[in-house]
Design goal:
- The protein is an alpha+beta fold.
- The chain has one domain.
- A hairpin with a 6-residue loop joins strand 13 and strand 14.
- The protein binds heme C.
- Heme C binds next to strand 8, strand 13, strand 14 and helix 10.
Amino acid sequence: MKQKYLVVLMAILYIALIQSCKDSSQTNDDTVESDGEAMFKAVEMPSILANGDPFPTDSNTINGWLKEKSVVDGLETDPNVIGHAWGLWQALTELTDQTYQGRNLRRYETWYTPQDVMKASSENSTLSDLKRTDGSLQFRPKFSIGHDAELEPTAGDISGKVKYSPGMAQRALEGNYFDSTFLKSKIVEGQINSLRFNPEDVMLKPIYRVLTDLNKVEGKDDTYYFHIWGGKQDGGKPDSLFSNKVNVCTNNASPDIDNSSTFSIDAFIYHKMSAAEAYTYNNSTKEGNEFVDTAKAGDPVILLGMHVSTRETQRWTWQSFYWTESPDNPIFPSSTVIAAGRNTLSKPLESPANHYAASVGYSMMSPALPYEGPPIDIMNAGVSPVYALNPYIEGTFGTDVFPDQATYFSGAYAEQFYKANIDGITSNCMSCHSQAAYDGSGFNEGSFLADQYVNRNAPWFEGMVQLDFAWSLFPGFEPPPSKVTE
Ligand code: HEC
């Protein structure tokens, strides 16, 4: 049924897209090198961000930014918060001197995955001695929860992964955080226990689109298409195509690049797939990836977006970035106010990093409510919800991803429930990540929250170990290291 629909849809698309960038018999001459030793180093964050803030910034400073109401239409407008988010983005996307297969890596690419931590633990290795032969881009099963029906795979599969800064990876390794027996040992009936990371710790969730032959515009060898977020009306649409689409042209001489829906590949953070990456992409299907397309060396891998969270405050800072066709004037969940923050950096963003929009949420409600305390009557607390999401990750979440949120807010907590916040486009990173806690049994599908205020001492955490907002530590969420190697 779905397959048939796709065939028809693709036929329509091919017809519609014939007018894309000009044909080119020119082949891409950047050759893909063979695998080297893969000993690239993980590069730490700089001590000063490009917006002038120290890293890490003192939590009192950040909490000070959140004391006044600063949201308009649910989106953050505080210049300090926005500047900080762009400062982090600059640092993460900056090119380093580290290379993998002859390609310079951006800072975030050099960081460790949870699978690296698991591998170091089982091999009794230090993180820095670990041979990361599968490179910085290790294909892994798709995120399952809330992503069962991912964005249309024929328009480019989405592949995501979790990354930790060097210090965070080290703490997860030393602390045995991927060992559920250890986590269980922290559980005490009637009590709330918590793991604790350090202020300089950073966690990421970059997502990519691999552009394979399946995404080529018919009759073109150098032009691919994919669908992009068109705003709130695309919210909660997990298995249908977003209405807007763009073409990506790999031939910069093409006259069609001026066409408003055709972009040069240079507008994206991207690299060409190595032979090893193509191999793991194609073969990890055996581990449940369900990539329907076949990749080959040289296929472009574009960075579609990235979740970024820092432990600078007890509740972490939350921001997400995603590629946009209009970086000066991005649509919800970003804004022109947020985009303007890019111009305040002392070190400019490199041109492709400048083509991304940001969504920012440093609190669940604005002004920020206390870290912990008694239940709050939310409608009479003088606060407004803060919406922060990545359209390509949470934007597609419908109400079914948050089936039981009302049950948390019953009894004394009934007045704390913000009834209008029910789906991905009314969600907030911090609220959902607050719920990352383990009671020794399996995942409760009803744990996810849209934008709700969560007190750290809420009674539903009793008898659990709070994972310090890191959902990736929930036993079973992160798959074991891939066995697919070339
Ligand atoms: C509905 C719940 C939910 C919302 C909303 C949500 N996340 Fe997550 N997030 C998760 C889950 C579950 C994972 C774990 C994925 C895995 O390990 O496979 C995760 C993983 C992550 C990670 C990887 C590290 C970790 O352990 O958490 C980061 C960073 C992250 N999310 C940031 C964000 C940001 C930024 C936002 C908002 C823009 C956001 N998340 C919104 C559920 C959520």
